[in-house]
Amino acid sequence: MKWSIQQLQAFRRDGLELDETVDVSQVKEGDREIREVTPVHVKGTGSISKDLATFTLTIEGSMTLPCARTLNDVDFPFVIEAIESFKLSEWATFDEEEEDDVHEVEGNTVDLMPYVRERILLEKPLRVFSDKPEGPAPESGSGWELQAEEQEAAKEKKVDPRLAKLKQLFDKE
Q: Where is this region: Disordered (predicted)?
C-alpha cells in the first residue's frame, strides 16, 4: 500500500480500488497492552486529482488485549472507517480546515501503512473485560480483597454495632 506520485497520477481518471490483507504486528511495539493483532483487511477506494489523493478505507481485524480484572486474553474485533488525504503537489493550497486533515507526502511516496497502524492504535479501548471469572491476576492481597458490587452494597446496609444507638436517634425524628 505504497505508491509514488507518478503511479498515483496513472489512476487519476479511473480511481484506485484497494482490497488487501496486511500485517500490522508493529502496533504491538506502539502499545504493550496489545498482546496480538491479526492481519487486517483493508478495503476501499482512492480518488486522485492533480493536487490531492484521498483514500476512503474500511479496516477490519482483531486484537488481543488483557482483561482489566483478571488479565485473561480478550479478543477485541474492530471495524474502522477512515478517510486519509495526501497533498500531491507542494504548490497546492487548501482551506485552513482542510489543511489540518491533509498529510504531506514524504520522499515523493504515499504510504498508507503508518496511517492504518495509527487508526488501529486509536481504536484500542481503555479496558476490556473477560467472561471468565478467574485468571492470572490475584483476587486478594495484603489488606485487600476483590469483591463484587453486590457484596459492597450488602456491607453498606449493615450498621456498625458501635453506631446502632446513634441510628436509633435518627429513627425517632
A: 128-159
Residue 15 gets the label, from left (phi > 0), alpha (psi -120 to 50) or beta, of left
Pairing of strands 40-48, 52-66: antiparallel
| 107-120 per-position pLDDT tens digit | 888 889 999 999 99
Instruction: Tell me the average pLDDT across 50-65.
Output: 92
Phi, psi of 128 (to 5 degrees): -130, 160
Q: Which three cell numbers stand for residue 122?
A: 486509536
Decide if 47 contacts 17 (C-beta within 8 A): no
- CA-nearest of 75, 104, 71 to 89 is 104
Q: What pTM, to 2 d.p., does this model score?
A: 0.72
Q: Residues of 50-66 as b/e, b for ≥16 C-beta within 10 angstroms?
A: eebbbbebebebebbbb
SS3 143: coil
Return d(Cα 83, Cα 113) in angstroms, integer: 13
According to DSSP, the β-strands at 2-4 and 109-111 are antiparallel
